[in-house]
Design a protein that fits this description.
Strand order of the largest sheet: 1-2
Protein name: Membrane protein
Order of helices and strands: HEEH
Largest sheet: 2 strands, antiparallel
Number of strands: 2
Distance between the termini: 24 Å
Number of helices: 2
Keywords: Membrane, Transmembrane, Transmembrane helix
Oligomer: single chain
Low-confidence stretches: none
Radius of gyration: 19 Å
Shape: elongated
Strand content: 5-15%
Amino acid sequence: MSIDWAALGQVFGVTLAVTVGIVGLFTVGIVGTSRRPGQEGEAATATAPGAGARAGAMAAFALCAAAVAYGIYLIVAA
């Protein structure tokens, strides 16, 4: 039995890059939808994120869902 180390390294590299990318996108989505603390000296209230931040967060979540759906497609179609 022979192991193709170059192919194994490529699979590892792509897997690592895609994993970090999806986790990063999901983190952007979480940060985009989180509430912001109020100004210093104000009452303890939190402000809702703006429309742009919410739209960016939804786009990040959509890209995460698309990547997961594509991965499932690759597994099932084979």
